[in-house]
Amino acid sequence: MEKGLEDLREQIQDLRERVLVSQVQPVSHEEFVFFQGKEVRQELAIYKAAVSARVMATQEASRVEVPKPHRFSGKRDAKELDNFLWHMERYFEAITLTDEATKVRTATLYLTDTATLWWRRRFADMEKGICTIETWEDFRREIKRQFYPEDVAYLARKNMRRLKHIGSIRDYVKEFSSLMLEIPNMTQEELLFNFMDNVQGWAEQELRRRGVQDLATAMAIAESLADYKRGDSSKIESLEDSHAMGGGDEVPRDHNAPKKDQARRLTSEKEGIRRKGKSLRLKSNASCVTVHIGHGIVQRGRRSVP
Question: Is the predicted pLDDT of residue 255 greater than 70, yes or no?
């Protein structure tokens, strides 16, 4: 479209030059009127094309519905504040907002609760001339200074070290992902080591068997693994340890093992009760023999009568 407009402008300029040289090469009145009318019509066509293009662009932009950014309540949480600022910047881009003061005023409309109270105080300070918040960078700096917690990366490292895979492995992956995003300077090798070191033994063995080399793959495989109950995982680990002592290469995984162990345990208890009952009967018979022998005491196979 721009090329077509440029061509029309060049044609109009040519017509103008031809009219200007009419003093050298006189033209008839009819020809002059014809050229003048043609020039007017071409200029009108250019204006119509420009207006039409602008209207079409406006209509196209109006069809795109820009989602509103999430509100910020003033919670001292690094992830929540970072997400709020990021969404605001994407919102500014979507609505083509470039004025710095308008950005600040727009962002304050999405503050609630404690954050609103903070902004009211800062606004009063600005009216008194105590501080100035005129640009988006000024706003980012001030709101982070108020609500961004200190030592975020340090605390995240400590929590990652304490994190253990106790319940669902999916919950473990989710918590680990949240912590690692708060530690920007930790290498992928360190993250992978911590992830593998904190999972339960059966999960770590499965990850190593599949030969994972990066954190993204380890997380994806871990989430696909079946969740075991805590008691079942301890049984599996004991089986794996006993098999490793025997030098085997593969640990048999019998899903009916708990039922077999229970049946074996019941059989053993029944056998113990039977033996105990037999022993009691023998003792009872022996006492009866002693009573029926007589009133004396047998010593060395002889009976002495008092």
Answer: no
- List the domain boundaries for the chain: 2-63, 78-147, 152-227
Cα–Cα dist 244/305, whole Å:
69
Q: Distance (Å, rounded) from C-alpha 14 to C-alpha 36?
A: 12
pTM to 2 decimals? 0.45
User: Which amino acid would we find at residue 247?
Assistant: G
Q: How far is CA 154 from CA 18, 82, 141, 182, 235, in A?
A: 78, 17, 21, 9, 36
- HEC states along 18-43? HHHHHHCCCCCHHHHHHHHHHHHHHH
DSSP, residue by residue, 74-141: ----HHHHHHHHHHHHHHHHHTT---HHHHHHHHHTTB-HHHHHHHHHHHHHHHTTS----SHHHHHH
Rg (CA), the chain: 44
* CA–centroid distance for 34 within its chain: 71
Per the structure block, which two tokens stand in for 77? 């949480």
pLDDT (tens digit per residue) in 165-221: 888 888 888 888 888 888 878 888 888 898 888 888 888 888 889 898 898 888 888
Average pLDDT, rounded, for the chain: 73
Q: For residue 25, how many C-alpha atoms fall within 13 Å in the half-sphere facing its CB?
A: 7
| Residues in CB range of 12: below 8 A, 6 or more apart | 39, 42, 43, 46
> What phi and psi values does residue 298 have, to the nearest 5 degrees?
-85, 125
Tell which residue, 202, 278, 215, has the closest CA to residue 241: 202
Give the pLDDT score at 275. Answer: 64
84 burial type by CB count under 10 A (0-12 exposed, 13-18 middle, 19+ buried): buried
Give the angle subtended at the CA of 177 by the CAs of 171 and 181, to the nearest 5°: 150
What burial class does residue 195 get, using C-beta atoms within 10 Å of its C-beta: 0-12 exposed, 13-18 middle, 19+ buried?
buried
**Which amino acid would we find at residue 17?**
E
How would you classify the pairing of strands 297-299 and 302-304?
Answer: antiparallel
